[in-house]
Amino acid sequence: MKIAVSGYSRRRPALCAGRWLASVALLILGLGLAAAETPDELLQRADHLKTANNSEFQSLLGQLDAQALALSVTQRDFIDYLHAWQLGYLGRYEDALAAFQTFLARVSDPTLRARARISLINVQVNATHYEDAYATLEALLASADKIEDRTARLLSQTVAATLYGDAGQYELSLHYVDQALAYGHGDRSTCIALTTKAGTMAKSGELRADDASAQAGLAACMRIDDVLYANLIRTYQAQALIANGRSNDALQLLQAHNAEILATHSAAATSIFHSILARCHLLAGDFDKARELALSAIDNGIKQAYSKPVADAYDVLYQAAKRQGRLQNALDYHEKYAAADRAYLSDTTARTLAYQMVNQQVLDKKRQIDVLSERNQVLQLEGEVAGKAAETERLYVALLIIGLVSIALWAYRTKRSQVRFQKLSRRDGLTGIVNRQHFMDESKRALKYAAKSSRDVSLILIDLDHFKAVNDTHGHAAGDGVLKQTVAACQQYMRSVDLFGRLGGEEFGVLLPDCGLETAGRRAEELRSAIADSVRVNPEMAVSASFGATSTRQSGYDLRQMLIHADSALYQAKRAGRNRVQVVDSALVPVPVQAA
Q1: Where are the alpha helices (DSSP H) in 306-388?
Q2: Which of 73, 74, 50, 70 is nearest to 60 (CA)?
Q3: Where does 404-505 show beta strands of DSSP type E?
Q4: What is the pTM of this model?
Q5: 33 secondary structure, DSSP code
């Protein structure tokens, strides 16, 4: 879960004036309370109000700054921590990163260091510094035994649960949620922990709208008036309702709380909330309201490194424009949706790889420690046999062999891990075929090689028809099954020299060396027929695909130009009714291929 707060831009003058007056009133009230509150009480109240009432939190922070010269070193350090936290909350990530790094370099208090690391992790995630975030998490968990503050311990468990959930490690995420629940029993602890649990279950597709733990978390958040966490839980519940065909219930759940989510000033939370609410209005047939909310989701989402709500919002705009008959707008929004969806897939992959890399580094360090431990044992043995020259010589030989074997084994394991990660970076995690980046790199090399001898190379682009409807109607698990079936059906017709890769979402590419356009058209027709005959969502629902093909004779040996021509032919196939093959002729005009 990534949450950051936007600035105060683009608000109506009357609304800004009202908020300014409210802030002045809160400041006056705060000054009255300050006379009766100690600095420690002010710090504690400010800490509790950070997300529940950020405006009052800023007012309290101003009061504390005015008293800074009279405070202790520990109290001033806490104020510095709160200022760094606010920078991250406002979305000023680079400033927040610098502030936290400076803070950690000079502060030694275990509790403050833990709180700073927790907040630093959230900023690193929002700034897409995923490998740094997982490295900071490892340092945080390693120092957990030194943390005595219950709140800091609770937040350590929940931030670990959030990060592991983002990396797809759902069981590990729920394990840390359970630890957090076991450690803290107050409403604030329950609110934070169960919000994290609901988010993890929503990512894994296991959350039900009536889930008891989500309801308990919502009740706890409402008791402490934390509208940010409460509305995050509502968005997870709404997603579950939509997935079960209950979009009207989801609409009723969310629309009454729209003003609350805007009052939090959280750009990421607003983007998530409005993207889901926009889909509810789309499904209810209110296309104008759906468009308004989707644009708001995009406006708030582009300020964050968080592309899923933006992708969903573009899909809502595409569906609304299509149903209203604004076909050019629909096409424009569909292209933006495809780009945002690819960005989301890349972001998810980056998180997973960052987790795997840091995890591997931790394992390597443990192996190094084991090697050092073995060497220490060797030194102890050398001291014990110092008086026995003959036995010492034999022992040295034995120890040398052990050391060499250990180093060789460590080197072998490290190399094998490097090879495994290299293979993972080239493969699509769902289908097992090459990913977009590897497909592009290998295709460029193949075209460069073919150009030297003027050999023919053809390119086929494949796009599954109505795939978004499959996901929306039958769920992402069914969509994943369709993608796997499609790959299995196509692989039966691939030569050993062919390059087959997933380019993103439901789009695939095939590069055919030593193959002219006519042969490529026949090959594409074979693939089209195989998909139509064997790929099923269920026994009654078949899946089809549209194809676009070109060759070097028509497009030259530049991969970018070949992709443009093949994509143009693919769109011609889509417009001609889908489930067909379209090739590019010598004049670069897409030509349909008749089924055999």
Answers
A1: 308-323, 327-384
A2: 50
A3: 457-464, 499-504
A4: 0.49
A5: H
